[in-house]
Amino acid sequence: MKYFHVILIMVSVSLPNVWSNSVETSKYGGTITVHVKGMVCDFCARGLEKVFKSEKAVSKIFVDLDESIVSIRKKPEKILTDKRIKELILKNGYSVEKITRSGAKSESKT
Predict the structure, then answer these.
(1) Phi, psi of 66 (to 5 degrees)
(2) In Å, what is the CA distance from 71 to each residue of 3, 22, 42, 103?
(3) N or C: which end of the chain has fewer CB within 10 A?
(4) For the whole model, what pTM was predicted?
């Protein structure tokens, strides 16, 4: 079990860096990083994963519970607005601190 936690931490640290690769991002669509307030347990993380996986614009989702970050890879040619992201997170009982998008300077703070 101890080794599982070490591997999980290593993967969670390296995965967002892989997603930020510009070639990969342009191939699959943009990456959106959301800083979430109030996410404290694995159940919280799994709930958000389930919600975002049901969105047609989402290709992949990764939740970093320790950093309170949700990384969303958007499908190419699909739209996922900051407003929609905030709605989904607020509906699940959390709040959004900041949203950043790869390759763009736009940020949303709440």
Answers:
(1) -65, -35
(2) 24, 15, 16, 14
(3) N
(4) 0.67
